[in-house]
Amino acid sequence: AEYHASRKVDGEFTVLNWEGGEAFSINPGGTVRLGLPWLEEAKRLFQAAGIQSAKIAGELFVHCEDRRPRVHDVTKIARNPKSDDDLERIRFAPFDIVELDGEGPSETYASTYQSLEALFGKSKKLQPVETRLVKDRSAIKSLFKEWVEEENAEGIVLRSDSAGIFTLKPRHTLDVVVVGFTES
């Protein structure tokens, strides 16, 4: 099968909601976020595109220059930002469209990704996940080597309209010795 291979972003799954002229996000734990710089940018993008309502699935993460982002970065900064610069570093990587102006998801991921690129491709704080089309195992292996082994990404996500969705992550094995414990 053909796969759209995306770089797996280590962050917090969240849904960007746009309705009634207001942009907000909500995660599976029920945390609602409003007024963040990336949400203000989303508002401008939706207004410019003439979109009335939307639900966009993606990964909330903190942009880091010197390392890959981690999910705990989002929790730390979103709950207790030290400055406006901290809030400016929070980004959203959209990877799916749940609803756009009352229409459900597209039948093909190629169409979905094309819509994400058209809407968010020029954005600074809402960049769609990096995605490449791969056609065979060797291309998947090569991409895994590049993104995960060489660039330290969390993994890759493979989406195929005919074969489904798969997440590939590295396997880590540890040999450990318990040197002590206490009972309470």
Folded structure, characterized:
Helix content is about 30%, strand content about 30%. It has helices spanning about 35-50, 70-80, 85-90, 110-120, 135-150; strands spanning about 5-10, 10-20, 20-25, 30-35, 55-60, 90-100, 130-135, 155-160, 165-170. The strands form 2 sheets. The protein has a 5-stranded antiparallel sheet. A 4-stranded antiparallel sheet has the order 7-1-8-9, with helices on one face. A hairpin with a 2-residue loop joins strand 2 (about 10-20) and strand 3. The longest helix has 14 residues, at about 135-150. It is globular and about 60 Å long.
Indicate the topology:
Blueprint: E1 3-8, E2 12-19, E3 22-26, E4 32-34, H1 37-49, E5 54-62, H2 71-79, H3 84-88, E6 90-100, H4 109-120, E7 131-134, H5 137-150, E8 155-160, E9 164-168
Antiparallel strand pairs: 1-7, 1-8, 2-3, 2-5, 3-4, 5-6, 8-9
